[in-house]
Amino acid sequence: MSVSTHGLRVRRGPHAVRAAVELFSSMRFAIALLTIICIASIIGTVLKQHEPIGNYVNQFGPFWAELFMAIRLHAVYSAWWFLLILGFLVVSTSFFTSGAMASSTRCSNGGRLGTDGS
Question: 22 lies in a domain?
Answer without folding.
Answer: yes
